[in-house]
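Attaching the record inline, Q. Sequence:
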Amino acid sequence: MAWSWRYEAADGTALDAESLPADLFSSRGDAETWLGENWRELAEAGAGRVTLLEDERPVYSMSLSEPAQ
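Structure, as predicted:
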């Protein structure tokens, strides 16, 4: 089982950007930890949302926008 992130625009449209990483992870926890450490850089590179994939199956999506204060 491989875990990965799909990068999307804020409206959910999948991004096909070579500047975004295509890492594969052996566990969900590793994928989530990696995202926690790298989400700001992903947002700066143009990703507005991400979807966690287990193999090719979407597990959940989330915004990369910082919460309003």
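Residues 3-63 form one domain. Helices lie at 28-44.

More tomorrow.
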